[in-house]
Write a structure and sequence with these properties.
0% strand
Length: 316
């Protein structure tokens, strides 16, 4: 296990290095003159050139990237062009709220999807299975912003149960302390994930139901409930653990849509505002955060699956 973890850490570091290089060079192609972005279109060419020279933006892009890596090694993500604040501070101020929103949506999705997927597998081709599958396909094909608008129209306008705007509190725990104002954002995040998780869980459960250990358990006369909870559930959830790890960046992208739709102050709204302001240091840091979450999610998922299923060969 130790060598497996070390190898994965090395691979993860190389992947993150590649992501940082690609994003850095792409943003440099989009805007090779930060001085023009910061000072505005009316700034004189002399002022723009002086700004770029003073901040090292007139150097070759490779040299700028090497300097950026040096800053990253010291924990410095740069400084926002427009807000004149440290990018790391901006991300830290908003990360907690986005993380809690994603966590609440993920937990709600799993609580619904896991038993639903197993129920569909146990009652394969029944009316319940067909209805749940059809609904999953419809929800999966529905864009998050459209789903959010429908929820607002129904539960905020037609039936004034929940507010249309999310809480503006800066506390990361607002999802739990003010659930009424956060209900629609959390439900919007969870519904699409339920559509994916339930079908994935159904396929995994169907595969396990055909295994010999399930037949043996039934032949011994064990109660069906015990077979499903003690034997089937653990093995059928292993593929879902891997899927959840790979969907971490998807949750981050979903936050962008949900936070902008419900005006929730988090990383997604920060990214959208930075995109409109052409604040490239923030955009670069946000993309790197997504890369880190992707790599970390896959890494943790692999470790959990390897620990839960001893049949996996760690030396490969």
């Amino acid at each position: 296990m130790t060598w497996y973890v070390l190898r994965r850490l090395v691979v993860s570091f190389l992947v993150l290095l590649g992501i940082s290089a690609v994003v850095f060079f792409l943003l440099h192609l989009v805007s090779d003159s930060p001085g023009r972005v910061v000072l505005g279109q009316r700034a004189s060419p002399e002022a723009v050139a002086a700004f770029n020279r003073d901040n090292g933006f007139d150097r070759p892009v490779v040299a700028q990237y090497v300097s950026y890596l040096g800053q990253l090694a010291q924990g410095d993500l740069g400084r926002s062009y427009k807000l004149n604040e440290n990018v790391g501070t901006l991300l830290w101020q908003n990360a907690g709220r986005s993380a809690m929103l994603s966590l609440a949506g993920l937990v709600l999705a799993l609580v619904i999807a896991v038993p639903l997927g197993i129920l569909q597998a146990v009652r394969r081709n029944s009316l319940v299975d067909r209805a749940a599958t059809a609904l999953s396909y419809v929800l999966y094909a529905t864009p998050s912003f459209l789903l959010g608008l429908v929820l607002i129209a129904v539960f905020s306008q037609a039936l004034p149960v929940f507010p249309a705007e999310a809480s503006q509190s800066h506390s990361p725990w607002v999802v739990f302390t003010d659930p009424r104002s956060m209900a629609l954002p959390v439900i919007t995040l969870a519904v699409t994930s339920v559509a994916i998780f339930s079908q994935y869980q159904r396929s995994a459960a169907l595969d396990q139901l055909g295994q010999d250990y399930i037949r043996v358990a039934r032949a011994k006369g064990l109660p069906e409930r015990l077979i499903l909870t003690r034997h089937l559930l653990r093995n059928a959830c292993l593929p879902l653990i891997t899927l959840v790890g790979t969907l971490v960046p998807t949750l981050l992208a979903g936050n962008l849509i949900v936070e902008s739709l419900f005006n929730y102050p988090g990383l997604g709204l920060l990214f959208l505002n930075s995109l409109q302001r052409e604040d490239y240091p923030v955009l670069l840091a946000y993309t790197l955060v997504g890369g880190v979450l992707t790599v970390a999610g896959n890494f943790v998922a692999d470790l959990v699956v390897a620990a839960a299923d001893r049949r996996i060969e760690l030396r490969k």
